Amino acid sequence: MSKNIYQFLDVQRIDPPKKALRERQIEFVEIYEPMSELQAQGQSDRCLDCGNPYCEWKCPVHNYIPQWLELVQQGRIFEAAELCHETNSLPEVCGRVCPQDRLCEGACTLNDDYGAVTIGSIEKYITDTAFAQGWRPDLSHVEATDFKVAVVGAGPAGLACADVLIRHGITPAVYDKYPEIGGLLTYGIPPFKLEKSVLERRREIFTDMGIQFKLGVEVGRDVLFADLVQKYDAVFVALGTYQALDGKLQGLDAKGVHHALAYLIGNTQTLMNEQMPAYPLINLEGKRVVVLGGGDTGMDCVRTAIRQQAESVVCAYRRDEGNMPGSRREVQNAREEGVQFEFNLQPIAIENKENQVVGVRMIRTELGSPDSNGRRRPQPVPDSEFVMPADAVVIAFGYQPNPPQWLQDEGVELSEWGTVIADESSRYPLQTSNPKIFSGGDMVRGADLVVTAIAQGRAAALGIADYLTSG
Ligand code: FAD
Ligand code: SF4
Hints:
Layout: H1 7-10, H2 21-24, H3 37-44, H4 54-58, H5 65-73, H6 77-87, H7 91-97, H8 104-107, H9 111-114, H10 119-132, E1 148-152, H11 156-167, E2 171-176, H12 184-187, H13 196-209, E3 212-215, H14 225-231, E4 234-237, E5 243-244, E6 257-259, H15 260-271, E7 288-292, H16 296-307, E8 312-316, H17 328-337, E9 340-342, E10 345-353, E11 356-370, E12 376-380, E13 386-389, E14 392-395, E15 399-400, H18 405-409, E16 437-439, H19 442-445, H20 450-470
Parallel strand pairs: 1-2, 1-4, 2-3, 4-16, 6-14, 7-8, 7-14, 8-9
Antiparallel strand pairs: 5-15, 10-11, 11-12, 11-13
Helix pairs in contact: 3-5, 5-6, 6-10, 7-10, 11-20, 15-16, 16-17
């Protein structure tokens, strides 16, 4: 029987149900309930199966979206999971944390008038369901080689690289300074977006596939990078980008001013009961909290403060809501949970009394002409300064690269912004100026997304395989 392509007229877009608000405001668990089989099939069936699927082009790993939606609709979950893994190393993660409204779902033909197909939730459904039913990647056809590659950094870029390498018969050894894999997936993104058990399950699966993990090992301190370059046939470096921007505000030294990642990592490591947390817990219970910045990191901070029972939580952003860089879905979730948004405000200084934060001096802004990225610049409105009261301020302005010196010592060239120079379209994609060293993720792109880090890790693995076998 041929497919009814007008199904979207009868079946509306329905997102998976969210947990009760009262629970969400106190618990550090994922807020979305799993989709049922019936829901997933009904929502998959809304796909028009466009001849030229824009969703697939817009997805940075170019997932075969219409094809796996059809398999879900037919109940063929194992085949759908197999297909998901052909293009994506961590589909269960992307289904949870990709800003789909800006990527696949934003490009869905149904998006404007009928509501996009719930692509992200279905990607999560496929992988979670297949894993729960016992499906595992099948590597029985892979022919092992003698090549060995060191991967430094177990974030999404490093994990994706290791995944594709092992599928090409090349054994990766993944080094990370933290005791668990995932990088920012584990330590930055809070559990209400991505529960930590998801990465634990992934580590078991990758280990069973033959990937070696050397966790709790800091390269440059516990082992020398030069030794890895010598010992392995190639090295992939994906250390992320961690130098916090602080806007050079006055008063940053006051007690009660916190950097976003220190705040988030300290909270997550405490929830994970880690023995030697890299950052202490910062508890904002009972405080009037102001978070500066409107990106994904800012959203994670405001929602963490809500769950810590802050007295009030304000997100202050210098442009208007339409220009916020964070995912629309997460802004909506934050608002539902009780976060107050204040737009068109530029912080000027942290106000303190006896070195304890008492507020943030702000100036109102209006949007002027576009900058080089096409985003309208916020311009200060004269005579509009005021102080927003606060007991705690979290700075979430973003991150810039902080590559270690040992990379340059091995001949890896950096751009003027400090990112590693490694081109996706070169003969061996993502090879650096040292032919044996490849790199990807945030340290090449600058702070970006999980799925773009995965795309680069996968591209680099193909570059490494080609470099090793054609050398
Ligand atoms: P990372 O994830 O940073 O991983 C780098 C790894 O390298 C880390 O595990 C680190 O421990 C390790 N490492 C560093 N130095 C050494 C060393 N010397 N020796 C050994 N190991 C080392 N993106 C989204 O798509 N959706 C979101 O919702 C989202 N939310 C975010 C929330 C926050 C708070 C932040 C900060 C970022 C968020 N992002 C989000 C961005 C996303 O997490 C990053 O773009 C992505 O994780 C980058 O991957 P990566 O592998 O390049 O680096
Ligand atoms: Fe959409 Fe991200 Fe999945 Fe691609 S990986 S289909 S962008 S949710």
